[in-house]
Amino acid sequence: MDDGNKSTQNTSINLSRPIRCIVKLGGAAITCKNELETINEGNLKEVSAQLRESMIMESSSGKVLGMDWSKRTGETDNSFAFDCFDDQQSLDSSPFIVVHGAGSFGHFQASKSSVHKGGLAQPLVKAGFVATRISVTKLNLEIVRALAKEGIPSIGMSPFSCGWSTSNRNIASTDLSVVAKAIDSGFVPVMHGDAVLDNILGCTILSGDVIIRHLAEHLKPEYVVFLTDVLGVYDRPPLEPNAVLLKEIAVREDGNWSVVKPTLENMNKQVETSVAAHDTTGGMQTKISEAAMIAKLGIDVYIVKAGTSHSLRAMSGELRDYIPDDWLGTVIRFLR
Amino acid sequence: MDDGNKSTQNTSINLSRPIRCIVKLGGAAITCKNELETINEGNLKEVSAQLRESMIMESSSGKVLGMDWSKRTGETDNSFAFDCFDDQQSLDSSPFIVVHGAGSFGHFQASKSSVHKGGLAQPLVKAGFVATRISVTKLNLEIVRALAKEGIPSIGMSPFSCGWSTSNRNIASTDLSVVAKAIDSGFVPVMHGDAVLDNILGCTILSGDVIIRHLAEHLKPEYVVFLTDVLGVYDRPPLEPNAVLLKEIAVREDGNWSVVKPTLENMNKQVETSVAAHDTTGGMQTKISEAAMIAKLGIDVYIVKAGTSHSLRAMSGELRDYIPDDWLGTVIRFLR
Fold it and tell me: Which of A224, A264, B13, B255 has a CA-to-CA distance to A145 between 20 and 30 Å?
């Protein structure tokens, strides 16, 4: 796949510190996929806490310094412990970028109006574009708030507003300088799959996975973690009996990939996967392809279940040198 | 005031149609200013309906085609009349930009942490920056939804995400091409006062009024309307006895301004105004100065009470040639 980013304007990417990790919060992991616009609160809270642990140096007092000072529906106590901030020498966190999928946000609106097919002149598509952006930015705000509550200096950044656009669904234009500046100022950009303008189709849907690949290509993180709702990539739909977790996949120069671990006889290289019917941006097959393209850049990719000890180990960078046998997940690596 | 925008990157502003109007939804008009993060629902609904009437050609069926298909707290009915869209030949609206203030959103967070003074290295300022952006984007989402519900193809665009930054509080960098592309695709950008990065101070607050002046300067709308919570500009705080509504203010080449109508003897040129103590971005005095700088560009500015027949007349463009005596509001014009 050629993302046609020859015209991409990335003139001013000057990061003072390299990005440590780009984390994808999969829609399936943080929302209840079959309930319209419903967040999986428990998972999101756990994921946020793990992200904090992975990226923030311990505060001197050990307290979490919440950065969401907004009212919450149903909450009466809106007092904040501003005094705590005086204890802190700094709130340094290592550079992370968070990208999230849509899950039960956005997909309904997008598929009802076929936004991904383009055609902004049609009233239904135009309305669907507006409705999709409302839904995904609603989710983005909730995720930014959940992270901020855990003391992560999160900043919502919509690809549409950041000037991302496509040409026949391939990324045509992005201005990564805004993302880079936010990172250099010590913030954690929180991006998301979005409805964007397409200079051939009029509009389309830009998936979180494609965003991650583009960010990885241009910002060169040390590693990338995909948080999902299953342990990793399996050789067939994970709920089927005898489904085998693929622990290590090697990607070759030509882009082809093969399973390195476990070494099973007769294992079908063509991994069967499950794709939910309402997932307009593709399922596990797309994820492996995107992950393989990132791995080809020499960046290790971990696909792992959100909110487990395995995801914490992947996000904290513990697996970079050595992957212990008791770690459950899929690592995708470039075979040099 | 020099906004120092010599370094502003506005290389690709190619609007296919000129902007008709930039509308400022004043924080005082659309929120309950003394209640933390509370929207004035009635006012916002009325303002949204008037905006629709001002910018959208009547739909063939006369029906409002809602573009907010998201769940609302407390609402059980989330059915949408998708069929209606088939009736429509087009949803053309004349080019408008909406900019809103913060009112009871953002000000609390910003003033508690002095974000406007900068100093991102201080944990409280950094946290306040995050908290302020959460609060103002929360309001932005609600306003985008209110407009979309009225059939306005509204798109939330945060200045921070769009790459707006300042240098010692003056606008240093903006990329208006994203705004222009959204307008050319038939959308109504909804921007807002925001916390932004400042290359001298670290960060600051960029007010909605400064955003409007910048947009007016570069996108040259036919006219600008400020919706507020009083009838217009008075010669003293509006609640004082004998306060006189200034119906017409003329701005001269040198930037000085004078009251043309009414012609009162002994009227103090120095208009007294009320500035709410928690309004970190200035009150009516700032508004007049900003409005005068817009008027100097040859663009008429109307300051008018939101949700009245007077605001509808101003937004619809009815007053451009002739202002009838029964119109209540303040027009600020360049005296050639």
Answer: A224
